[in-house]
């Protein structure tokens, strides 16, 4: 693996102080072939730093964490204590289980039926109260061990759980019939709500803009919805002027970005970064604030 990689997004507030990390909240998001981190000043409720890395050299979790350690060492924040640390995992090995069917002893069997679980992995459960479901996923014991070495009190959550919790809160409060998408690196989550109730959730892998549109239109048809009448809300690693959005706008009458919220401020140094890029860390930090 390359000894160092360079960020494709990097922004740091001039007031950031490595001597005050105990006053900061850190979120680290692990994605396919990369990672990103966001730091918020807990006193001012302001996001003051973020960096994102993506590389074909990052083949597995060991490579990714090694690169993360190098980045933090270069930034002089490795070994620093933060007010809170949350590690957000991506990956497609995620499943939703209704509360009435869930049992701790059944978690491995459920996940193994749907996905290939790596050896020496731990099954982790996220409770999604708004949906009366449990999100289950796996993380290798090696990576969990490395995280706990650096941050013994670190919280762990899956990005799909964060996504579902946030959009469920919006949809339920207004009893919306709506589709929400969270775009990742080479895949996207889709959650369909009818009158505020979650009726469909899945992750779709895509290579082209046509793949993306196909899965979206297929779900609309299967859910007996209308592209002319259904609002589609998008977030994640996608721009408004991207080829995917331009194509979708030809078929979807109302397609827009999900709003992050307004309980957290963003430093001027980060204003040029599209807010949908840090949608998941924002929701995690908002819940903690």
Describe it.
- With 289 residues, the chain is an alpha/beta fold.
- The chain has helices at 61-74, 107-114, 141-150, 159-174, 209-222, 243-249, 279-288; strands spanning 9-12, 24-31, 34-41, 46-54, 84-89, 94-98, 121-128, 133-140, 155-158, 178-183, 187-194, 197-205, 231-236, 254-257, 265-266.
- Strand 10 (178-183) and strand 11 form a beta hairpin.
- The chain is globular and about 55 Å long.
- The model has no long low-confidence stretch (mean pLDDT 93).
Give me the strand/helix succession. Answer: EEEEHEEHEEHEHEEEHEHEEH
Principal-axes shape call: globular
Instruction: State the total count of DSSP E strands.
Output: 15
Q: With helices defined by DSSP (H or I, 4 residues minimum), what is the helix count?
A: 7
This entry's quaternary arrangement is single chain
Taking all Cα atoms into account, the compactness measure Rg is: 19 Å
Q: Estimate the helix proportion, in percent.
A: 25-40%
Share of β-strand residues: 25-35%
Low-confidence stretches: none
Distance between the termini: 37 Å
Helix/strand/pairing category: alpha/beta
The largest pleated sheet is described as: 7 strands, mixed
Q: Please state the average pLDDT score.
A: 93
């Amino acid at each position: 693996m390359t000894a160092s990689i360079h960020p494709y997004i990097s922004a740091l507030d001039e007031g950031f102080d490595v001597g005050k990390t105990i006053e900061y909240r850190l979120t680290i998001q692990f994605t396919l072939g990369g990672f990103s981190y966001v730091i918020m000043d807990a006193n001012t409720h302001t996001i003051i730093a973020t960096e994102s890395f993506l590389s074909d050299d990052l083949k597995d979790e060991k490579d990714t964490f090694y690169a993360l350690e190098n980045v933090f060492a270069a930034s002089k924040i490795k070994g620093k204590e933060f007010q809170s640390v949350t590690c957000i995992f991506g990956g497609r090995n995620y499943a939703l289980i209704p509360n009435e069917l869930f049992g701790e002893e059944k978690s491995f069997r459920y996940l193994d039926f749907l996905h290939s679980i790596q050896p020496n992995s731990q099954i982790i459960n996220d409770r999604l109260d708004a949906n009366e479901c449990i999100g289950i996923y796996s993380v290798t014991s090696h990576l969990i061990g490395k995280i706990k070495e650096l941050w013994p009190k670190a919280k762990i959550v899956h990005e799909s759980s964060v996504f579902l919790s946030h959009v469920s809160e919006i949809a339920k409060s207004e009893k919306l019939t709506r589709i929400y998408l969270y775009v990742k690196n080479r895949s996207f989550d889709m959650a369909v709500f009818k009158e505020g109730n979650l009726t469909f959730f899945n992750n779709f892998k895509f290579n082209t803009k046509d793949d993306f549109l196909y899965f979206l239109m297929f779900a609309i048809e299967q859910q007996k919805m209308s592209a002319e009448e259904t609002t589609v809300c998008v977030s994640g690693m996608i721009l408004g002027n991207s080829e995917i959005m331009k194509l979708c706008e030809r078929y979807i009458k109302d397609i827009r970005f999900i709003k992050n919220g307004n309980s957290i401020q963003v430093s001027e140094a980060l204003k040029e970064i599209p807010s949908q890029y840090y949608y998941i860390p924002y929701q995690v930090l908002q819940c903690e604030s």
